[in-house]
Amino acid sequence: CHTSGMLTPNGKEYAQKIPREELTHLILKLLQAWKEPLSHFNQHIEHHQELPDDSLSKAKQISNMVHELKTGVEKSMGIISNSLNGMASSEGTALSISNEANTMSDSDFIHCFRRDSNKVQSYLKILKCRIMPENSC
Predict the structure, then answer these.
(1) What is its main location (predicted)?
(2) Where does the pLDDT of residue 101 fall: very low under 50, low under 70, confident under 90, or very high at 90 and above?
(3) CA-CA distance, 35 to 32, in Å (whole number)?
């Protein structure tokens, strides 16, 4: 996976030990790493005439959700300027990561996306529990 080089906590127990700001930044880095590869993947599958329209629609919907999620995390955590400054400095790395993702097979791409999506979902649940502990987390 093109994001394998990113240091992410292995398991829920380790993720719970990471400070909120660092965990939020990690979520944003993962989402940013998928922005360009998802766009490339959408362009790639649009040229497959044999794919049903609902598959194409689903791929576009996923890309839009990743973008909206990234924007929502930035706004809700109030770290827009800090996160974007941190990401701008690693822009070159993001481009090389994107190029690696663009060369993966479709099945590997989907596998990696699912893996990272599960990580983001877990990290968001941890953040939600920290922010709203009354949810019996």
Answers:
(1) secreted
(2) low
(3) 5
